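Page 42, continued from yesterday. The earlier attempt failed because a stray header line got pasted into the input along with the sequence. Redoing it now with the clean sequence only.
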Amino acid sequence: MSTKKKQEVDFEEEWSKVSDGVLTIKWYYFPTSISAENFRDRPEYFYNVKIDVGERFKKGFTVNNIRGFVAALRKYVDTLDIESDGN
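This time it went through. Structure tokens are written below.
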């Protein structure tokens, strides 16, 4: 009989999930100077997020609940380098 503990999900949306300190990016895009803007049908409801994982390219995706996403990350990371485009 398995006694595997179910992971706590701190945050989950269409393209990302934070669970037990692990950020899973389900899908990401490589923004260029042309595609760096939010590509959602209703972009005013979404925030662009770029994550630097130490690779050549940062991983980019959108979230609707930016406060919930940041709160989930803060549970596991002492310092977040957050940049805002002023919106």
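Notes: The chain has a mean pLDDT of 79.
Reminder to self: strip header lines before submitting.
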